[in-house]
Amino acid sequence: MSNQVPEDGTLLPLMEEFYTIQGEGYHTGKAAYFIRLGGCDVGCHWCDVKESWDANLHPLTAADQIVENAKKHPAKTVVITGGEPLIYNLDYLTRALKAAGIQTFIETSGAYPLSGFWDWICLSPKKFKGPRPDVLNAAGELKVIVFNKSDFQWAEEHAKFVGKNCKLYLQPEWSKAAEMTPLIIDYVKENPQWEISLQTHKYLNIP
Ligand SMILES: C[S@@+](CC[C@H](N)C(=O)[O-])C[C@H]1O[C@@H](n2cnc3c(N)ncnc32)[C@H](O)[C@@H]1O
Ligand SMILES: Nc1nc2[nH]cc(C(=O)O)c2c(=O)[nH]1
Ligand code: SF4
Ligand SMILES: [Mg+2]
């Protein structure tokens, strides 16, 4: 993690920004501007964006500049992801995005305290560094990655701690998708409070 990131959230380590289609979860299929912040110490061995982990590799960028970039796109929705975006105080960035009329969505493991003003919170909790209660309470969707059979039980244990209107998703870990997707299909048929989420952008070959 970087030592030089100011605590007021006016400068953030930015790995990449791209305009694409939300590939996963509740908002799948919607155009959105993705803001990927660098820095994560959760350590998922199957993480599909390990290049994000070292915040020092990603330039500190003015939050005001990120907002200006987001404003240029037709869809008035951003997805803030990482890395683990909640390592940083996101109040300044999300306040400015909302002032510009842009909806704010986040992808988070919930391993850090909740900051920011959100229209949608996607919580994808991890065994390696568990989710915090404030994020469990606020989540609009719980999206559990299924890497092996034990993850179904683990998903149920976390579903107990989210709000009653929280959407429940099971998403196959990408390298195990051929093996796990049939198990997820059977599980959802037996437990229809859960739905399947696929990483559709990977099938579509888009970012
Ligand atoms: C790269 S993470 C960044 C945001 C945050 N650190 C988190 O884990 O939620 C974005 C999303 O991709 C999911 N993800 C990461 N690697 C994956 C993989 N190999 N297969 C399926 N989903 C994956 C995460 O669970 C999360 O929902
Ligand atoms: N298209 C697309 N949808 C996504 N949804 C969550 C992503 C992420 O890496 O956080 C992601 C991503 O990287 N690309
Ligand atoms: S918490 Fe997210 S960014 Fe961090 S290692 Fe896990 S999947 Fe990757
Ligand atoms: Mg991704």
Using brief descriptors, characterize the structure shown.
single chain; 207 residues; alpha/beta; TIM Barrel; 9-stranded mixed β-sheet; 9 strands; binds S-adenosylmethionine; binds ligand 2KA; binds iron/sulfur cluster; binds magnesium ion
General description of the model:
The chain is of the alpha/beta class and 207 residues long. It has a domain at 11-145: TIM Barrel (Alpha-Beta Barrel), CATH 3.20.20.70. Helices cover 26% and strands 25% of the residues. The protein is built from 6 helices and 9 strands; from the N terminus they run βββαβαββαβαβαβα. The longest helix is centred in the C-terminal third of the chain and has 14 residues, at 177-190. The model has no long low-confidence stretch (mean pLDDT 98). It binds S-adenosylmethionine, the ligand Nc1nc2[nH]cc(C(=O)O)c2c(=O)[nH]1, iron/sulfur cluster and magnesium ion. The ligand Nc1nc2[nH]cc(C(=O)O)c2c(=O)[nH]1 binds next to strand 1.
